[in-house]
Structure formats: structure tokens, C-alpha cells
Design goal:
Blueprint (H helix, E strand, L loop, with lengths): L1 H7 L12 H10 L5 H14 L3 H5 L3 H8 L5 H18 L8 H5 L6 H10 L10 H10 L7 H11 L5 H14 L28
Helix pairs in contact: 2-8, 5-6, 9-11
């Protein structure tokens, strides 16, 4: 499965736009229960105002809210972005930490967000379980689980080491564009013969 993903897309990338570990962290926090597209539309104005923890930490919540109000849960996210920036400045010398424990101690940062930052910014072979990966892992039979953590642990067991760095993005992109939630497009799936999903869809007439 992953050999095929690699052949199709050797270097998959996040669709979030960012410049460095800090702007990536902010973008991922903003992307919770929102689309990458909506985040990418909002972050240029935010990063023009503040693109470092030091600058973000000094902003008023209303300044951040005004620039991200098109994103879901924007009030709480504005509060978290400022608070995590303040903590990065005071506890991590203005640098986004590279340890999971430190990342998860930041306001608004859970395991999924920490995994994305560790993977994309710091090149660690972590797998962040979003709705797409959860669905693909269960639907295909690759790594069934009832919770995101169960699926993450199952994927960690079954994915060969050499594919772990990019596995996160291969599965997300596959779920986003092929193995869709309502109707998977099985007729154009490159791993359909490896998939345990029984109700495979045919090509539309």
C-alpha cells in the first residue's frame, strides 16, 4: 500500500501554508474543525500582523479574532494562539519546542496538533490522526480502532519504518480526495485491491 503511495507521490506535503515551525503551529491550531483552505485564506493577514511568538504574544484578542473570524471556533482559537505564544516566549526562549510533552503543554495543542508539528516542522515519523486518517484506517482494514489513539498505535505497528515519515500525508490526501467520507471513489483508487471495504463503488455512468 505505502509503496504505491510513494510511487504516486514521493514527497507529500501539508496543504497548510506556513513559513517556519511557529507559523505552522499556529496554522495547525487554527485548522481544528476547519478546512485547510479556510485557514490558508485567513493566515496571511494574521502573519502580516504577527509572525513570531514575540509579536503574537503582545496582541489583543480582538486583533487576532478580527483576522481569523472566518474560521470556526475563532474566539477560543484567538485566545489560545496568544496564550501559546506567550508560553513559547517565557518557557522556550521564543522557539517552538521539539518534544511532544512540551508541545502538548501549550494552550490549544493536543496530541494531533503536536504530531503534525513534530512531523512537518521537525521531520519526526509521527502520525496525526484526523478524520480522514481515522476513516481510511478503519475502512480499508489497515489499522482498525475505535479511538484516534488506537488507530495511531495500530498504524505505528503496521507501517514499515521507511514509510512512516510520509504516511501521515499519504493517508490524509487519500482520504481527502479519493476515499471520501460519503462515497469513496473506489474506481480510481490505486489500493482498492488491498482494501477490505466490501461495498466498493463503481465509476459513475
Amino acid at each position: 500500500m505505502f509503496a504505491r503511495f510513494e510511487t504516486l507521490d514521493p514527497e507529500p506535503q501539508t496543504e497548510l501554508k506556513f513559513r517556519d515551525p511557529f507559523t505552522l503551529l499556529v496554522a495547525v491550531v487554527l485548522s481544528a474543525q476547519a478546512t485547510d483552505t479556510s485557514v490558508n485564506l485567513a493566515t496571511p493577514a494574521l502573519f502580516e500582523l504577527a509572525d513570531t511568538p514575540e509579536k503574537m504574544a503582545t496582541l489583543a484578542e480582538e486583533d487576532v479574532r478580527e483576522r481569523i473570524k472566518t474560521i470556526g471556533l475563532f474566539r477560543n482559537k484567538a485566545k489560545n494562539v496568544i496564550a501559546l505564544s506567550q508560553k513559547i516566549v517565557t518557557e522556550h526562549a521564543g522557539q517552538v519546542p521539539e518534544r511532544r510533552e512540551d508541545l502538548e503543554s501549550l494552550p490549544g495543542v493536543g496530541r494531533k496538533t503536536a504530531n503534525v508539528v513534530l512531523n512537518v516542522a521537525f521531520g519526526q515519523p509521527t502520525i496525526a490522526i484526523d478524520t480522514h486518517i481515522f476513516r481510511v484506517s478503519n475502512r480499508t482494514g489497515l489499522a482498525p480502532g475505535k479511538t484516534p489513539l488506537e488507530v495511531e498505535q495500530a498504524l505505528d505497528r503496521v507501517i514499515p519504518e521507511k514509510y512512516k515519515l510520509h504516511a501521515h500525508h499519504w493517508l490524509i490526501l487519500h482520504g481527502r480526495y479519493v476515499c471520501k467520507a460519503r462515497k469513496p471513489e473506489c474506481w480510481r483508487c490505486h489500493i482498492s485491491d488491498l482494501c477490505a471495504f466490501k461495498d466498493k463503488s463503481a465509476a459513475p455512468a
